[in-house]
Amino acid sequence: MRYRIAQRFLLSNVIVLSLLFILLHYLKKDDLTRRSPKFDILDVPFNHSFSLGTGSPNDSHSSKSKFIIGILSQDSQIELREALRQTWIPLLKKDLPLTVEYTFVLDNPTPATLSELRTKQDIVFLNSSYSGYAVRFGEKMYKWFRYVTEHYPDATLVAKMDDDVFLCVNKMFQRLSNLKHRRLYYGWQHNKEYMQIDEMFVVLGMDLVLRINQRKYCYRERSQCNNKSELVDEGWGGKSIGLWLSVYDDVLTVPDNQNIIYYNRAMKPPIDIRKEDNFCQKYLLYHKATVSDMVFLHNMTTAGETNK
């Protein structure tokens, strides 16, 4: 009898300890992998908008809000930068529903990029501490947001995008004009359970940028950082931003996957742009565009607008 009691007692302890281990393991998981139930993920139809409700004079529908784009680029990608300058970037000067300004964002100056800056006047150097593929991209996001806060304090929306993205200017900025909100978090979402918009094109409202800037970037090892009070770097910029925003319960997330053509190395290209009648009548942007893709899409878009 005593043996059975001791056996049952031991078994019950094992079960309790196992449950405690599972609970502790769950609690130690990254905040990024657990979406807060208060985190609003909104399905906004293309021609719809939602109420601003922020009380900011910069957000009035009667005046144009300012939208700032930082295009992250590597020193060697001068051909891509030039392709953007010759295709969709000049269209930003058109009569758009938002006032749009752009700049290329590079890590650190070199003789070649300094010469390019003197000629083009559209480059900002972040003076990043790290370089390399997916190495501390969170620091680049942090420094870009600090730059925008200092130089464009009146902005309503802030974006970071890659230099291999072709924007369908008219349709994209009509869409963002309908969504402009100082707590907006917009782009291509990786997973409904994750608070992660891909960094190839991610838009944040200025209130979220200001909140991020109130926290310090953690340069220590990740395990020594506190996500609630510091900015923890996940390597990728988009993943880092998602983690930073996970501590707030009032972020307005608008995934737009159905209108954005996203590509990564794990996927085949989802469409053949050369078989499309007019890409920019259907979609907002094309990711992983080559120089020839940029020229093709620009010529197609220009011809489509001429034939209207």
TrEMBL record:
It holds the Pfam family Galactosyl_T. Its main location: Golgi. Keywords: Glycosyltransferase, Golgi apparatus, Membrane, Signal-anchor, Transferase, Transmembrane, Transmembrane helix. The keyword Membrane applies. Its EC number is 2.4.1.-. GO terms for molecular function: glycosyltransferase activity. GO terms for cellular component: Golgi membrane. Signal peptide: none annotated. It is found in: Golgi apparatus membrane. Belongs to the glycosyltransferase 31 family. PANTHER family: BETA-1,3-GALACTOSYLTRANSFERASE PVG3, BETA-1,3-N-ACETYLGLUCOSAMINYLTRANSFERASE. This is Hexosyltransferase. It comes from Sinanodonta woodiana (Chinese pond mussel).
